[in-house]
Specification:
Chain C: GO terms for molecular function: ATP binding; ATP hydrolysis activity; transmembrane transporter activity. The structure holds 3 protein chains of 3 kinds. By secondary structure, chain A is α+β, with helices and mostly antiparallel strands. Chain A is 52% helix and 13% strand. By secondary structure, chain C is α/β, with parallel strands linked by helices. Chain C contains 8 helices and 10 strands. The two termini of chain C are 15 Å apart. Classes of the chains: A alpha+beta, B mainly alpha, C alpha/beta. At the A-C interface, helix 12 and helix 20 of A face helix 1, helix 2, strand 6 and helix 3 of C.
Chain lengths: 776, 174, 229
């Protein structure tokens, strides 16, 4: 077989694919768009690891300080950096205050000159936000003059909100509660090897990749088969004029090749468009620059080779059961009954691969990536292998019913393979999505049930800076818009010995109203002292809170307890209760009137703020007040379920992604559905001629899709839940079926069938017109 | 085949001399058997006697047979009746049918009608044969089938002729 | 054309235009109960369109069609479908049997469309298949039987509802002469014994010879030979 012969046949196939008149073009375009969407998705996915790595690299390059790092002396190449991060609505804003201590102080990446006191440089996204009406409150908080923008080098994403503000006297702040450091360079080599991925997170990422890419692969396989029946007939015509069966196969391969190459081109275009689009969106608070999204060359080449190869392979495989005769296409008579055992091997093999990793999520163990990917893939491929058997077996047993039902069931019995193939993509996508949703739901429970904050009592807390006027600070917060109540709790710890070691007792200082937030007592006047009972946390309170006991307090950081205080005689008992943070405190409760002067200077004060949620931006008004008092303060906002939003966003994203994949598959379903209908034009017309109701025919089309889809979804739900359960066991999470997501995913799948049927109804009605009977 | 009707039909397009009539007949219908002059003469005499033609004029000096004939009203009616009457279905009647069709075209009559009428007549015979076949034994069936196939061949030829009427009209009226 | 007394189905002055082509241009038709009428004419003459109009499958642009005293052109699509289901039967040249259904299921289909139970419908269907000598094919699918057998199954299906009129469009078009004649014999015998009228579109004289009379369609106009001659 000469190369010339090969290339001639392939070329002829390519010509058939592209020059088949309007209809030929539509078909080629359909295939190309299908393959193109798949390719774009593949390229985008291959680019994501690189993009994340690039983000990490930039994050590392701009990192300024870590806890417990060595202090360095002031020099002409040092810089003081103080964190001034803030939150606006639900968006994080990265903030730093800078003060250069000499001419050689290091500039942060992306910044060309230090902002002077009262000035700042901002990221483009922040600049835009501040300029907009929405950003008015934030503008009040970041009350600096904008003198420049931070370049791409200094940002980890196009949508990141960040600023560098100039300041003076920052070294003083470092001694206070502010977080920051004196540094002589940006980028911390110690951070080079960042923390290893959380194994559960790694598992999530791997599964997401496999689950999203598997249906894409199935879809590409379906896309290259668009117009298959017509192609077979064309090939039959070629056989008639003398091409042998090998030649026709090569010509068919050429057609598939042309479609997939066109698809590669379109896919590249889609990818480039998507890349630009990616710059303007933020997913899960992660945004990227287009330049990050570069598929690794190796993977890109792999995609470019694998897609056409797969297209040709699928075509050749599809032609395997088909004998193309000069006078038409003969499908090899009654295919042998499908066997179950090897089909079962695939999902069982998948489970076997995953089994050894059960329970490894907790004890710091690692998941073997290959086993995870292999296991998940085998399970999902198992769906595509099992489905034809399930459809065949079930359909063969379906009994009597109305005419529509009979027509549909008989058709399915005759060609269950075709039906199963159409549904495969949807089944795989749904199975994967259900498993993922279960995993997310389970893991979410793990990570988020920790919060014990009682947000009905307070929603925010903020520390009063040491040494500032507490009363004035409290007054400022009380005056803040939307403030309902400020609870002021100060505390300190006293020891039973003057030395460093010994037992510790907590002392809480607050007025009677605020004390009621931490304990219950029959009466309270200023000057009262209580011992809190009922706390499970400190066992020493009983012993140390006895009247006459002398307790010692430290006057500075040295740990030397030089100030003493004696527990007075009139101490009363109070019943401890959970404070707004969910903490049952023990120790001694003192009203301000009973607090000796010498101790008053040693307490640190925290405010618990309850705001009126009906006041818009109440939280941001509080943050503004805090920033006015101290730009480096970071008020904490409480959530009843911590980071719930984020998981919800991920799950929404997953649902949307799955829905898009399903819609894509639905499109291919529609195409093959219409193709089949056109094949039966004459039959449909004659059925209408002898009086078949249109409703009957429409219903039979619906059944014909709904039965395999129903079975597919059932199988998908089963496999998906099994996979979900295994994944949850792997992360050592209790197995809980997330019914809403099971129902919503299968619901979306079912909805797609309905839409496909509805969309194929108008052409069906058109085909049922008697024109189909005309032979002239 | 009726020579009288044929000659009458030829006269319908305009008066002709006897000699012209023979020439026209030979050219259009007498491919292998040209008409004897005597045949023309005796036929015309009979038609003249029956009032279907009349003498339009005699050319002087040319000889005894230089009479010019024209068709009468009665002659036209006679031709019409002949054309409308189907031939008895029997094998080898193409030449008659052909003559009829050509004449109809020459005289601007609807040749399709002739075909329809003839088909109807053929079908009548075929129905009888079909009926006999259904009731008869194997021998009957074979005999009837033989006749049916011949009749069908005639009809097929008729259909073909009908499909080509336009071309034929062009050819014969050229 | 005047309507002959006792006609079951008549049509007058039918006109139908498909785009640039005029399929029917003033065609008429009439048939008595139990009569077999052949519709003949060259291809493209409009004979199939005439049949489609008569059967209420296609609505003519103008003209009237009367079945049993009812004006067919005034009926809704659903009414005409119901009429076709219960009163008419159909045989086409090919491509009419549902390939997925077995032969007996195919024959039973019109009864099922009329609401009969499956069991009852298939029993009646089998009786008709016996009559058309194809009862041994009941479990086979249309793809597994010969053209002549398939056509007999189709004839059985057209008669299974005891229709008043069977419309047959080139029913023997795809068959050889032996099978074609056998199908015609069975169709006309069955129709005559049930007093069913048959509208038979054909271009073959030997098929038309099974009719009682014929009408000819040419250029969209019909000609009733019985009444002209």
């Amino acid at each position: 077989m000469s190369v010339r012969q090969w290339s001639r046949d392939l070329g002829m196939g390519a010509r058939f694919a592209l020059a088949g008149g309007r209809e030929g073009w539509t078909r080629a375009l359909l295939t190309a768009v299908g393959v193109g969407l798949g390719v774009a998705l593949l390229l985008l996915t291959t680019a994501i690891p690189g993009a994340l790595a690039e983000r990490d690299r930039r994050e590392e390059a701009r990192s300024d300080h870590t806890f417990g790092q060595q202090e360095i002396p002031k020099a002409d190449n040092t810089l003081i950096v103080v964190d001034s991060d803030t939150i606006f609505r639900d968006q994080d804003v990265r903030g730093r205050m800078l003060e250069a201590e000499g001419p050689k102080a290091p500039l942060p990446p992306g910044v060309s000159a230090f902002p002077a006191d009262g000035e700042m440089v901002v990221s483009p996204a922040l600049k835009e936000l501040l300029a907009s009406g929405d950003g008015k409150l934030l503008r009040e908080r970041l009350d600096y003059r904008i003198t420049g923008t931070i370049g791409e080098q200094g940002l980890v994403g196009s949508q990141e909100l960040a600023y560098f503000a100039g300041g003076t006297g920052l070294a003083e702040r470092l001694k206070g509660s502010a977080s920051g450091a004196r540094i002589d360079s940006f980028g911390n080599p110690d951070l080079g090897s960042s923390d290893p991925w959380d194994p559960v997170l790694l598992l999530l990422v791997l599964v997401v990749f496999v689950v999203l890419l598997m249906p894409v692969a199935v879809f590409i396989a379906a896309a290259v088969r668009f117009g298959g029946e017509r192609r077979d007939r064309r090939l039959a015509a070629l056989r008639l004029v003398g091409s042998d069966s090998r030649m026709t196969r090569r010509i068919a391969a050429g057609e598939a090749l042309a479609g997939s190459v066109l698809g590669l081109v379109l896919g590249t275009v889609f990818f480039l468009l998507g890349r630009q689009l990616a710059a303007s969106v933020e997913v899960f608070r992660v945004s990227v620059f287009p330049s990050y999204l570069n598929p690794s060359p190796l993977l890109a080449v792999l995609v470019a080779l694998a897609v056409p190869a797969a297209a040709v392979l699928v075509t050749i495989l599809a032609l395997r059961g088909v004998v193309i005769e000069p006078l038409g296409v003969v499908r090899t008579a009654r295919p042998t009954r499908r066997r179950l055992w090897w089909r079962l091997l695939l999902p069982l093999g998948g489970l076997a691969l995953l089994y050894p990793m059960i329970g490894q999520g907790d004890d710091g163990g690692n998941f073997n990536q290959y086993l995870v990917v292999g296991g998940v893939m085998l399970l999902l491929i198992g769906v595509t292998a099992l489905l034809p058997w399930v459809v065949e077996t079930v359909v063969a047993r379906l009994g009597s019913g109305g005419v529509a039902w009979q027509l549909a069931v008989r058709r399915l019995q005759l060609s269950s393979g075709v039906a199963a193939r159409m549904v495969n993509g949807i089944a795989v996508a749904v199975a994967g999505a259900i498993a993922l949703q279960m995993l997310f739901a389970g893991v979410e429970g793990n990570y988020t049930r920790a919060s014990q904050y009682d947000i009905s009592r307070a929603q925010m807390s903020v520390d009063v800076p040491d040494g500032s006027d507490t009363a004035a600070t409290v007054a400022k917060y009380r005056d803040t818009e939307g403030m309902r109540k400020v609870t002021v709790l100060s505390d300190m710890h006293l020891g039973d010995r003057r030395g460093e070691a010994g037992s510790i007792i907590q002392i809480t200082v607050a007025d009677c109203a605020s004390l009621r937030e931490v304990a219950t007592f029959p009466s309270c006047r200023d000057g009262d002292i209580f011992v809190a009972k009922g706390s499970e946390y400190d066992s020493d309170s009983e012993r140390l809170a006895k009247p006459g006991t002398t307790l010692w307090a430290a006057s500075d950081d040295s740990g030397d307890r030089a100030v003493s205080w004696t527990v007075p005689r009139d101490i009363r008992e109070a019943e401890s209760r959970e404070d707004p943070t969910g903490y049952m405190r023990g120790g001694i409760l003192i009203t301000p009137g009973a607090l000796p002067e010498k101790l008053a200077a040693l307490i640190s004060t925290r405010l618990f703020l309850s705001v009126d949620p009906s006041v818009p931006d109440a939280y941001d008004h509080v943050r503004n007040t805090a920033a006015r008092l101290d730009p480096t303060s970071q008020p904490m906002t409480w959530h009843s379920i911590e980071s719930n939003d984020r998981y919800a966003a991920i799950r929404t994203g997953l649902s949307v992604g799955a829905a898009c994949v399903l819609a894509l598959i639905g499109a291919s379903l529609l195409v093959s559905q219409l193709e089949q209908l056109r094949e039966r034009r004459k039959l449909l017309s004659s059925l209408v001629a002898f009086g078949t109701r249109r409703r009957t025919l429409g219903l039979s089309v619906l059944w014909q899709t709904a039965i395999p889809i129903g079975l597919g979804l059932l199988l998908a739900a089963t496999v998906g839940m099994a996979l979900g359960a295994v994944l949850l066991r792997m992360t050592n999470t209790s197995v809980r079926v997330d019914w809403p997501s099971v129902l919503s995913m299968t619901g979306i799948g079912a909805g797609i069938v309905l839409v496909v049927t509805l969309l194929s109804l108008p052409p069906l009605l058109k085909l049922m017109r008697p024109d189909g009977l005309r032979t002239e | 085949m009726s020579i009288g009707h044929t000659l009458l039909g030829l006269l319908e397009s305009g008066p002709r001399h006897g000699y012209d009539l023979k020439r026209a007949f030979d050219e259009k219908f007498g491919h292998d058997r040209p008409l004897h002059y005597g045949q023309v003469y005796s036929t015309m005499s009979r038609l003249l006697k029956n009032g279907l033609v009349e003498v339009d004029g005699i050319e002087a000096g040319g000889g005894p047979e230089r009479k010019r004939y024209a068709i009468t009203e009665a002659g036209v009616t006679d031709v019409a009746r002949w054309l409308a009457t189907p031939e008895k279905p029997e094998p080898y009647l193409q030449s008659t049918l052909y003559t009829k069709v050509v004449l109809a075209l020459l005289t601007h009559r609807d040749a399709g009608d002739i075909l329809d009428t003839q088909r109807s007549e053929h079908l009548r015979s075929m129905r009888i044969l079909t009926d006999r076949k259904r009731k008869g034994d194997l021998a009957d069936q074979l005999i009837c089938d033989h006749a049916l196939f011949h009749l069908e061949a005639d009809l097929r030829w008729l259909e073909l002729a009908a499909a080509r009427l336009d071309k034929l009209r062009e050819a014969v009226t050229r | 054309m005047t309507i002959p007394a006792g006609s079951l189905l008549t049509a007058q002055d039918l006109r139908k235009v498909y785009g640039p082509t005029t399929a029917l241009d003033g065609a008429g038709f009439s048939i008595h109960p139990g009569e077999v009428v052949a519709v003949m004419g060259p291809s493209g003459s409009g004979k199939s369109t005439l049949l489609h109009c008569l059967a209420g499958i296609v609505m003519p642009d103008s003209g009237s069609i009367t079945y049993n005293g009812r004006e067919v052109t005034a009926m809704s699509d659903a009414e005409r479908s119901a009429l076709r289901r219960s009163e008419f039967g159909f045989v086409f040249q090919f491509g009419q049997l549902v390939p997925e259904l077995t032969c007996v299921e195919n024959v039973a289909l019109p009864l099922r469309l009329n609401g009969s139970s499956r069991k009852e419908a298939e029993r009646t269907a089998l009786a008709w298949m016996e009559r058309l000598e194809v009862d041994d094919l009941r479990k086979k699918r249309p793809g597994e039987v010969s053209g002549g057998q398939g056509q007999r199954v189709a004839v059985a299906r057209s008669l299974v509802t005891n229709p008043r009129v069977v419309f047959a469009d080139e029913p023997t078009g795809a068959l050889d002469s032996f099978n074609g004649e056998r199908v015609m014999e069975l169709l006309t015998d069955a129709a005559r014994s049930a007093n069913t009228a048959v509208v038979l579109v054909t271009h073959e004289a030997r098929v038309a010879a099974y009719s009682d009379r014929e009408i000819v369609v040419r250029d969209g106009k019909s000609r009733d030979m019985e009444r002209v001659v």
